[in-house]
């Protein structure tokens, strides 16, 4: 029914502050797009451009066939959940939820009915008479969601809606959000700096840095095929091992290891290698020729309960590699060998950072 | 048990700490009021050679019959009502403007406060000159328009004199209200307006449904302050009109002042003070009652 399209969007506050440089995106009905990036990378600004709270310096926002650049925020039929929730402190929960309907002069009977439906769905019916002040963080978050849902908007916009919740609640609400928005069948744009939220909720993730989309892909592909060094380092926890290696002929040198390079038109002097900690394991009895073996001394181990993170200084170099291994696994403290399949290596251009 | 003991001790300490303030209040407020009430039961004027002679409630009887008192009360109410209304509207406009970001806002904010900082007597004198019928700026400006009467006697006409007083008072105290409201405006988070705009509200609707309700504590405080000040207005009137012409701008304080200092009628003056005090208290209690019905807490809570 509605497709949200951004065309070459740019927002410049001052000549130095350009949080959104050139962004083109489409989000279809039922698609859940997450804008993922570190703090200050322009996620909120992009969302506010979509909502109409900021005017773009250049570029256009479309819903369906309609160019929204000259349309007021209130006429865009988008609902937004603010990071602070922005609940009206002087109104009851019921009034908070129904404000948009009242402003649109929906008949009172319908308002009552819609508020009740959405309150039931979010399990806040018993709070309808209260003021936001007397609600807990989780309850406020639900009210903010209810305020968005009750409108049945064309597009949902959410700005870090879970960031003010404690860890346990966040996990629970995350699951609920996923079900909730799957049933809405509308374009959803969700802003977060939390990669777990991005991975679990979205059907598509746009990784942002410096006002540009670094990669736009489904979450699994972002994880398995990061488009550049920044995405590789930003997505995944613990962080991917990123090493800058010298190239000699057709191999890259890591300590005493020689790692065959991927097929390249021209062999560069330096190359970046990325290995996810979870792709590494402590060497078993036999090693196939499809695997790379890295030897060195483990100087730090951190037990997370579910797994252990070991840090290994590579033999013959100063590079450190971290590996996630099962918690009951033992290793030789003097000299440990880690193995990783060649297929799990990520190569990046040392200068541009692009995936090779 | 121990909980109770701790609480008891805390309460004792609380009272102990409050005592000095209470004693001070007693001397500063309760004693003068009580003394005035006591005085009002006596006749003490030139007729009695300034000797107090107990006369019961006779001063109060006289007061009920005293047309001049009721007229001065009416004048005060008109002055208070009209000036506070204008100040509130204008103060809100200024506060909204000062709340926008523009170049030189700090300078404008500071200079907007200047009228408030001027001594009333000084600015009253200036306004008296501004409204002077022969040399005043107002008449000068008006005379430049065709079809306007020139040489309007501002301070010599009952209605116009009141108007001139109100204009001067509004000029002086609007900045006070503007700054008070501005502080309130700045405490309203911007994202409420953004959420309201996305909800479909026009700026006017946002003003009525977000700004005004959230600004109520500041508005109420401004009203209370200004009501108390304006009802007791003395210096401005004394300087600009002296209560004239023919008592048309005589406020309660001016009348009381004249009774005591000019006619040396101390007993009757005290009765006037007591009645005015009681009326003021009643007005404040009524306002407080109405506000509590509207579930608004003056201290900003709820
Ligand atoms: N109204 C504004 N005026 C000037 N700079 C702004 C404004 N809003 C945001 N910025 C800047 O734009 C950058 C991106 O901000 P934002 O979009 O909020 O980042 P985030 O990705 O953390 O949500 C920040 O450097 C911020 O300082
Ligand atoms: Mg943000």
From TrEMBL, chain A:
The keyword Acyltransferase does not apply. InterPro entries: AAA+_ATPase (IPR003593), ABC_transporter-like_ATP-bd (IPR003439), ABC_transporter-like_CS (IPR017871), ABC_transpr_MalK-like (IPR015855), ABC_transpr_MalK/UgpC-like (IPR047641), Mo/tungstate-bd_C_term_dom (IPR008995), NA-bd_OB-fold (IPR012340), OB_MalK-like (IPR040582). One of its GO terms (molecular function) is ATP binding. It comes from the Bacteria. Residues 4-235 form the ABC transporter domain. The keyword Nucleotide-binding applies. Keywords: ATP-binding, Cell membrane, Membrane, Nucleotide-binding, Translocase, Transport. PANTHER family: MALTODEXTRIN IMPORT ATP-BINDING PROTEIN MSMX, TREHALOSE IMPORT ATP-BINDING PROTEIN SUGC. This is ABC transporter ATP-binding protein. It comes from Spirulina subsalsa FACHB-351.
From TrEMBL, chain B:
It is a multi-pass membrane protein. Gene3D superfamilies: MetI-like. PROSITE patterns: ABC_TM1. It is found in: Cell membrane. InterPro entries: MetI-like (IPR000515), MetI-like_sf (IPR035906). The chain crosses the membrane at residues 12-33, 78-98, 110-130, 161-185, 206-228, 266-292. Its main location: membrane. Residues 73-287 form the ABC transmembrane type-1 domain. Keywords: Cell membrane, Membrane, Transmembrane, Transmembrane helix, Transport. CDD domains: TM_PBP2. Belongs to the binding-protein-dependent transport system permease family. This is Sugar ABC transporter permease. The lineage of its organism: Bacteria, Bacillati, Cyanobacteriota, Cyanophyceae, Spirulinales.
